[in-house]
Specification:
Low-confidence stretches: none
Shape: elongated
Number of helices: 11
Strand order of the largest sheet: 1-2
Mean pLDDT: 80
Number of strands: 2
Helix content: 55-70%
Strand content: under 5%
């Protein structure tokens, strides 16, 4: 049986996978909508130039078959709206993958690692509502509904897990926790690796020996050493010649 932390990890990553799918669907649907809007505007302009367009169609609030309002600069604002939605979707996709983390921590902290999923869910709901507020095709309708539903789930997860949601679903944090959870003692014996301690001990011993060698310089056992000892008040006497105890006596041998 898996620990509770594993179920949390799987659930949050499953929600992240659904969020990525919803964002990709919205990204694709907005590109399709831009293409359809441009084609509808071209047909409208061609019919208007040929004076073949009905008066009711010319005075309509929206260009037929598009989400473009029939007003001055309506095409510009409609296309700009779709481009801004695509840009926001790209930013949300990058935040879901957590790359680049330093960029989000500095410029978009609410989408960074230190914040939960509540802000992400709010932005997703806003994008879904912005798309659903217009008459769109079936593909865009389904994608926007799906994104809005995932945004609600992200807000719920943000309320439950708060700022630790992204940490609980992080793969690197899971690996680090697995390393820290390894046993360090078996039957009272320390099994932690000690290979890293040897280089530091050797380097410290080498440095201490090197330091003592640089600080102290000997004069040896020659005349220079004897003179230095005499200046300091030490008397050096020549040792008496003697034989070891186990050596035979010369007089007896003679």
């Amino acid at each position: 049986m898996l620990p509770p932390r594993a179920y949390t990890f799987i659930g949050l990553n499953g929600l992240r996978a659904l969020s990525v799918i919803a964002l990709l669907l919205v990204f694709a649907s907005n590109i399709v909508t831009i293409v359809h809007d441009v084609q509808a505007v071209d047909r409208f302009q061609a019919g208007k130039a040929a004076n073949a367009t009905d008066e009711a169609i010319i005075n309509a609030d929206y260009i037929v078959g598009s989400t473009v309002p029939n007003q001055p600069a309506g095409v510009f604002w409609a296309v700009l709206n779709r481009l801004l939605i695509i840009f926001q979707v790209i930013v949300l996709l990058l935040s879901e993958f957590g790359w680049p983390s330093g960029f989000f921590s500095r410029f978009f902290p609410i989408l960074g690692r230190d914040f939960g999923l509540g802000a992400l869910g709010i932005i997703q709901c806003l994008l879904g509502a912005a798309i659903l507020s217009h008459h769109v095709d079936d593909f865009s309708l389904v994608a926007a509904f799906f994104l809005f539903a995932i945004g609600c789930l992200n807000m719920l997860a943000g309320l439950i897990f708060r700022n630790s949601a992204k940490i609980k679903r992080s793969l690197t944090e899971w690996k680090d926790h697995a390393k820290n959870s390894l046993p360090t003692h078996v039957a009272g014996i320390d099994i932690r690796p000690v290979a890293s301690a040897a280089p530091s001990f050797v380097s410290s011993a080498f440095k201490s020996e090197k330091g003592t060698g640089e600080e102290k310089t000997g004069l040896g056992f020659g005349l220079a050493g004897e003179r230095a000892a005499g200046l300091k008040g030490y008397l050096i006497s020549r040792p008496l010649e003697s034989l070891p105890r186990y050596a035979p006596n010369r007089t007896a041998a003679a």
